[in-house]
Specification:
Layout: E1 5-6, H1 17-23, H2 42-62, E2 69-72, H3 75-90, E3 96-100, H4 105-116, E4 120-124, H5 134-140, E5 145-149, H6 163-172, E6 176-180, E7 199-203, E8 214-218, H7 247-262, H8 264-280, E9 288-290, E10 300-305, H9 310-316, E11 320-321, H10 327-331, H11 337-341, H12 346-349, E12 352-356, H13 363-382
Parallel strand pairs: 1-11, 3-4, 3-5, 5-6, 6-7
Antiparallel strand pairs: 2-8, 7-8, 9-10, 10-12
Helix pairs in contact: 1-7, 2-7, 3-4
The structure holds pyridoxal-5'-phosphate (PLP).
C-alpha cells in the first residue's frame, strides 16, 4: 500500500500510465511534435490528423459533433469563455444570468465580475439535499434572462443536478444553458443528445488525463449562440480561442476519456462499493453526519463529526490526503460556501471534510482510512488540550 494515501481525487487525478505512454509519442523529435496549423509539410499534417482523430473521439464520448469541440487550457477557461462571451454578445438587449450558490468558483467569480460591469445575476440556493428546486428556477426566469449556468455534479458534496430537466426549461424559454460538467465527464454516464445543453465545460485532469487541457462544447444547432473571439491571434479553434494547439495534451485527454468511458461502469461499481464500505464502518461514530445526498456521486463523500474541528482531523490524519471545502476555497482559507448554502452552521462547516475516491483507490487504503479516522477522533477527544504535542 502506498503511503501517503491519496483520497483527494475530486481536486485532481494522476495521469493514467496508459495515457502517459500515448502522450509521450507526441512530444519529441522522433514523435509527432509538429504544429497542427503548419499546413505546408508532413510534420504539421501528422499533428493535424492526430488532433482531428482525438477531437472525433472526444465528441463521440460525449455525444456531439467534432466541430462543436473547442480546446482550451482548463475548465476554468472554458467557463469564462462560455459565460462572458455569451453575455457580452447579448448585452445590448438582455442582461440577466441565473446560476446557483453551489457552483465552482470559476462560475461564481465570473458572475460576480459580470455583476460589477452591469449585468444582473440570480444565485439560486439549493434545498438541504443540495438540489436546485426547478420551480424556483422557473420563477427566477424573466424577459431579460439570457443564460442559465447550473453544474452537473458538485465538487464538494457530489450532489447530481437534473441537468436535462433544467435544459428543457431553458429551451422552452429560449434561454442558453451552460453546464459545468467537470466532475461528471468520464465518471458518470453522459450524452449530449437530447440534453438541451448549449455550452459545456470540463477539464481532462479530473479523469486521469493531463492538467492544462479543457474543452468547451458549443451547440452548433442553436442559432442564437454566438461566442466572440476571446483570445485573438492565429485564429485556431474557430477563431474563438487562438494559440498553438497542445497536441500531446489533446491526445492525453482523448485517450483518458476513451479509457474512462470504457471502464466507467466497472470503476463506478467498485467506487460505490468502497464508498458504502467506508460509510458503513464510520457511520456509528458519535456525532457523525453526512452532507448532501448519499445517493449523489459515489466518488465524493462529505462528512463531519460534531465537535471535531476538520483542521485537527486533517493534521491527525496527515498521511491521508483529504480536504475540507474545495481546494480553491481552502487556499483562501475561507469556510465552504457550498456547505453554507445547504444550511450548515459555521460550526458544522468547520467540522466537515471531503473524502474523494478514484480509480486507484484500494480496499486496503479504505481499511486504513477507517482505522485512522477512528483513531484520530479518539485521540482528539482524549487530549483536546495538548493534541499538538505528540
Ligand atoms: C475542478 C473543477 C473546476 C475547475 O477545473 P480547472 O481544471 O481547475 O479549471 C470547475 N468545476 C468543477 C465542478 C470542478 O470540480
Amino acid at each position: 500500500m502506498k503511503n501517503p494515501i491519496y483520497l483527494d481525487y475530486a481536486s485532481t487525478t494522476p495521469v493514467d500510465k496508459r495515457v502517459l505512454k500515448k502522450m509521450m509519442k507526441y512530444l519529441s523529435i522522433d514523435g509527432v511534435f509538429g504544429n497542427p496549423a503548419s499546413n505546408l509539410h508532413i510534420f504539421g499534417w501528422d499533428a493535424e490528423e492526430a488532433v482531428s482523430i482525438a477531437r472525433k473521439n472526444i465528441a463521440k464520448c460525449i455525444g456531439c459533433n467534432s466541430n462543436e469541440i473547442i480546446f482550451t487550457s482548463t475548465a476554468s477557461e472554458s467557463i469564462n469563455i462560455a459565460i462572458k462571451s455569451t453575455m457580452n454578445y447579448f448585452q445590448k438587449n438582455k442582461k440577466h444570468i441565473i446560476t446557483s450558490t453551489i457552483e465552482h468558483k470559476s462560475v461564481i467569480e465570473t458572475c460576480i465580475y459580470l455583476e460589477k460591469i452591469g449585468f444582473r445575476v440570480t444565485y439560486l440556493k439549493p434545498s438541504k439535499n443540495g438540489l436546485i428546486d426547478l420551480n424556483k428556477l422557473k420563477k427566477a426566469i424573466n424577459k431579460t434572462t439570457i443564460l442559465v449556468s447550473i453544474m452537473h455534479i458538485n465538487n464538494e458534496i457530489g450532489v447530481i443536478q437534473n441537468i436535462s430537466k433544467i435544459g428543457k426549461i431553458c429551451h422552452s424559454k429560449n434561454i442558453i444553458y451552460h453546464v459545468d460538467a467537470t466532475q461528471s465527464i468520464g465518471k458518470y454516464p453522459f450524452n449530449l443528445k437530447n440534453m438541451h445543453i448549449d455550452l459545456l465545460s470540463f477539464s481532462a485532469h479530473k479523469f486521469y488525463g493531463p492538467k492544462g487541457i479543457g474543452v468547451l462544447y458549443i451547440n452548433k444547432k442553436k442559432p442564437n449562440i454566438f461566442l466572440e473571439t476571446f483570445i485573438h491571434g492565429g485564429g485556431q479553434e474557430q477563431n474563438i480561442r487562438s494559440g498553438t494547439l497542445a497536441v500531446h495534451q489533446i491526445i492525453g485527454m482523448s485517450e483518458a476519456l476513451l479509457i474512462s468511458v470504457n471502464e466507467m461502469d466497472k470503476d463506478r461499481l467498485k467506487i460505490q462499493k468502497l464508498k458504502n464500505y467506508l460509510w458503513n464502518n464510520i457511520k456509528n461514530i458519535k456525532g457523525i453526519y453526512y452532507n448532501g445526498d448519499y445517493n449523489g456521486s459515489p466518488y465524493i463523500i462529505n462528512i463531519g463529526i460534531k465537535n471535531i474541528l476538520n483542521k485537527l482531523l486533517v493534521i491527525e490524519m496527515k498521511n491521508i490526503a483529504i480536504s475540507f471545502s474545495s481546494a480553491c476555497t481552502s487556499y483562501y482559507s475561507q469556510s465552504s460556501y457550498v456547505l453554507k448554502s445547504i444550511g450548515l452552521t459555521e460550526k458544522l462547516i468547520q467540522n466537515s471534510i471531503r473524502i474523494s475516491l478514484g480509480r486507484f483507490t484500494t480496499k486496503r487504503e479504505i481499511n486504513y482510512t477507517i482505522y485512522k479516522i477512528h483513531k484520530s477522533i479518539n485521540k482528539i477527544i482524549n487530549c483536546k488540550d495538548n493534541f499538538f504535542i505528540n
